[in-house]
């Protein structure tokens, strides 16, 4: 059974940071390189960075499968849409419906907040994730390059899914 739990404590954010380190090192090193992964983990995925993001309106959730932490996600509200900032699941736990459960929860939150769309950004070379999002109805609406500091950029597509 998969549970979606709000991240509220220092322990929750430490758990998420640990998951981020595992997931990002494995998944993103071949795409963006070890140096950028390390920078992004320190800058955006540390426990302190996540706690700061919560102060800026982000909501973090821990995904547990059979009482074991296996992933996490984060979103915040924009004017007309919910922005899905992060959604990550351990590679060993993929294919068990955990990501689907997270998306259903996010859709429910968007509806409760009166948002009719969900948007996200995804690295242009992250083909497996792009395919997974397209399979559940997300469409590519834009391409962006963002300077994230320290000489690094994020080269992303913007994907969007309209809700009923």
UniProtKB/TrEMBL annotation:
<dbReference type="Pfam" id="PF00583">
    <property type="entry name" value="Acetyltransf_1"/>
</dbReference>
<keyword id="KW-0012">Acyltransferase</keyword>
<dbReference type="InterPro" id="IPR000182">
    <property type="entry name" value="GNAT_dom"/>
</dbReference>
<dbReference type="InterPro" id="IPR050680">
    <property type="entry name" value="YpeA/RimI_acetyltransf"/>
</dbReference>
<keyword id="KW-0808">Transferase</keyword>
<protein>
    <submittedName>
        <fullName>GNAT family N-acetyltransferase</fullName>
    </submittedName>
</protein>
<dbReference type="InterPro" id="IPR016181">
    <property type="entry name" value="Acyl_CoA_acyltransferase"/>
</dbReference>
<feature type="domain" description="N-acetyltransferase">
    <location>
        <begin position="23"/>
        <end position="164"/>
    </location>
</feature>
